[in-house]
C-alpha cells in the first residue's frame, strides 16, 4: 500500500474510533443557504471560511483551479445548480484571490510537462484533433477581478439559474480581506 494512503487510513481509524467526527455532524443542507465557488489554493482551506464567519454545515463550497467557470454546462455549473435546486442555496458567491497560480499558467509549458510525465505527443495530438483547444482549456487569466466578473456573468446569464444574488469577491490570501467586485 502507498505510504501516504497508509498513513491517512491509520489516522482515519483512530479518528473514527475516538469519535472525533462528532463536532462536524451536520446535514447536507447549507444553514446559511450559500454556495461558494472559489479556488483550490491551499491558503484558502481555513482562511476563507474563517474570514467569512463560516462553519461546517453553513455553506456549499466548490473548488477549482482559479475558481473559474469556463463552460456553461460543465461540472462546476452543475454543482451550483444542484446546490440551488436540491440543497436550498439561495445566494452564489464567486471568490477569487490575489496571487493566484492560474494568473501565471503557461499552457505550452503544461503541455511540455505532459510529455515529461509520460503522456505521448500522439495522445495530445488526438485530443487537439478532436476539437479540444488545450491552450484555451489550460489558460488562466491576466486579471483576477476580470476573471471573477466573467464567472459571475456566466452564472447570472445561465438559463437554469433563477433570479438570485450572485456576488463576486476577491480575497487576500494573506490577510483574508475581501474586496467586492460585483454585488449581487
The oligomeric status of these chains comes to single chain
Mean pLDDT: 96
Stretches where pLDDT falls below 50 for ≥5 residues?
none
How many distinct folded domains?
Answer: 2
CATH superfamily of the largest domain: Carbonic anhydrase
Strand order of the largest sheet: 2-1-3-4-5
So what's the overall shape? globular
What is the CATH C-level name of the largest domain?
Alpha Beta
Largest sheet: 5 strands, mixed
What radius of gyration results from the CA coordinates?
A: 19 Å
| Structure annotation, total helices | 7
Tell me how many strands there are: 5
Alpha-carbon distance between the two ends: 48 Å
Helix coverage percent: 25-40%
Order of helices and strands: HEHEHEHHHHEE
Question: And the CATH topology of the largest domain?
Answer: Beta-carbonic Anhydrase, Chain A
Amino acid at each position: 500500500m502507498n505510504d501516504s494512503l497508509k498513513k491517512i487510513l491509520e489516522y482515519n481509524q483512530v479518528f473514527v474510533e475516538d469519535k472525533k467526527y462528532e463536532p462536524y455532524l451536520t446535514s447536507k443542507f447549507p444553514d446559511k443557504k450559500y454556495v461558494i465557488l472559489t479556488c483550490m489554493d491551499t491558503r484558502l482551506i481555513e482562511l476563507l471560511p474563517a474570514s467569512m464567519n463560516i462553519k461546517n454545515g453553513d455553506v456549499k463550497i466548490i473548488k477549482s483551479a482559479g475558481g473559474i467557470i469556463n463552460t456553461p454546462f460543465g461540472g462546476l455549473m452543475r454543482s451550483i445548480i444542484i446546490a440551488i435546486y436540491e440543497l436550498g442555496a439561495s445566494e452564489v458567491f464567486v471568490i477569487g484571490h490575489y496571487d493566484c497560480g492560474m494568473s501565471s499558467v503557461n499552457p505550452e509549458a503544461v503541455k511540455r510537462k505532459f510529455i515529461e510525465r509520460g503522456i505521448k505527443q500522439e495522445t495530445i495530438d488526438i485530443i487537439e484533433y478532436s476539437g479540444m483547444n488545450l491552450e484555451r482549456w489550460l489558460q488562466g487569466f491576466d486579471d483576477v477581478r476580470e476573471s471573477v466578473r466573467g464567472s459571475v456573468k456566466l452564472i447570472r446569464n445561465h438559463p437554469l439559474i433563477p433570479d438570485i444574488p450572485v456576488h463576486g469577491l476577491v480575497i487576500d490570501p494573506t490577510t483574508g480581506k475581501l474586496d467586492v467586485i460585483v454585488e449581487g
